[in-house]
């Protein structure tokens, strides 16, 4: 009889401890849970979100919003959740809607900045990468998974964001020997050999890692054209002895197969220059490729191409510091 009472008391205490744990995870409210021990669902808490060094940030991630997706596992009670806003108020992260996880590791994916990325439907993790201006709102970053497994035993999520885009910047100088106004009205960038790969739009899935073979889709294009006739370089021109660095773009990441050709229309004339493949083999996500051009009386020269990770200004040696002299 005494043994039965002991067992009954242990059972009551165990139930009380479980209730305390569930209430602690619920942030003060009663959250629904599935029956089945390890399959019980508890709400997720976002602890840290960091980027891997973003120079174009206009707003630090300590005062920003991200979007979170939970795509697996899911049940009728806890369906998949898409684009849930998570905001940092200066002290911590808070979710607009609770995200629930069970005993199986959850598939969580995030992107930044919230509301600035268009996905292929309400219940999709796929978006399109297109050539656009390099601004803070366009600088799309993501994490395909949390830094550590998130489940009902560890319902705390942390993420490290990485760039989806590659950066391309033009540094265009007008030499003192150039006799005209140096009005640059058009830039064309394309493979030097017709038919080689070049992308101006690619599909990307934030639920897949960058190493996934099917991560970046898209159809190849013949090249990319930028009309600069309405810009200052096209109306007033680039003054002798000065340099224009106003053109900074975001490109879909891609590997080149051959040399890259640039065609510039300056004062009504076309000038063609070639960037050797050995100098620019790819446009890498998270890297900024700066192309240095100089307009002279004899034509246009490429004075250099430098490729740096966005988290540093100088990375000496190797592919991170490719220079054409």
Main features:
six-stranded mixed beta sheet; disordered C terminus; signal; Mfa-like_1; elongated; single chain; mainly beta; about 325 residues; 2 domains; Immunoglobulin-like; seven-stranded mixed beta sheet; Mfa-like_1_N; disordered N terminus
Structure description:
- This protein is mainly β and 325 residues long.
- The chain is built from 2 helices and 23 strands.
- The chain folds into 2 domains: 12-28 and 42-163, Fimbrillin-like (Immunoglobulin-like, Sandwich), CATH 2.60.40; 166-321, Immunoglobulin-like, CATH 2.60.40.2630.
- The strands form 6 sheets. The protein has a 7-stranded mixed sheet with strand order 2-11-10-7-3-4-5, with no helix packed on it. Strands 9, 12, 16, 17, 22 and 23 form a 6-stranded mixed sheet that branches.
- A hairpin with an 8-residue loop joins strand 3 (65-72) and strand 4.
- Residues 1-26 form the signal peptide.
- InterPro entries: Mfa-like_1, Mfa-like_1_N.
- This is Fimbrillin family protein.
- It comes from Bacteroides fragilis.
């Amino acid at each position: 009889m005494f043994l039965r009472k002991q067992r009954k008391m242990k059972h009551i205490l165990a139930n009380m401890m479980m209730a305390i744990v569930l209430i602690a995870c619920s942030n003060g409210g009663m959250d629904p849970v599935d029956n089945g021990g390890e399959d019980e669902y508890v709400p997720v808490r976002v602890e840290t979100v960091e980027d891997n060094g973003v120079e174009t940030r206009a707003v630090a991630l300590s005062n920003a919003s991200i979007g979170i997706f939970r795509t697996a596992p899911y049940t009728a009670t806890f369906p998949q959740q898409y684009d849930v806003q998570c905001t940092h108020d200066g002290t911590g992260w808070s979710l607009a809607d609770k995200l629930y996880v069970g005993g199986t590791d959850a598939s969580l994916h995030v992107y930044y900045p919230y509301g600035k990325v268009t996905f292929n439907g309400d219940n999709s993790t796929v978006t399109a990468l297109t050539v656009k201006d390099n601004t803070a709102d366009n600088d799309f970053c993501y994490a395909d998974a949390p830094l550590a497994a998130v489940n009902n035993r560890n319902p705390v999520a942390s993420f490290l964001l990485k760039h989806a885009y590659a950066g391309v910047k033009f540094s265009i100088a007008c030499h003192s020997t150039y006799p005209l106004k140096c009005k640059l009205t058009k830039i064309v960038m394309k493979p030097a050999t017709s038919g080689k790969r070049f992308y101006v739009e690619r599909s990307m899935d934030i639920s897949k890692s960058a190493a996934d073979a099917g991560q970046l889709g898209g159809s190849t294009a013949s090249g990319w054209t930028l009309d600069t006739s309405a810009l200052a370089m096209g109306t007033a021109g680039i003054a002798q002895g000065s340099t224009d660095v106003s053109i900074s773009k975001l490109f879909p990441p891609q590997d080149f197969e051959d040399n890259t050709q640039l065609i510039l229309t300056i004062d009504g004339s076309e000038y063609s220059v070639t960037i050797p493949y050995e100098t620019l083999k790819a446009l890498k996500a998270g890297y900024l490729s700066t192309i240095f051009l100089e307009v002279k009386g004899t034509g246009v020269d490429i004075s250099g191409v430098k490729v740096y990770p966005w988290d540093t200004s100088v990375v000496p040696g190797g592919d991170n510091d490719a220079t054409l002299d």
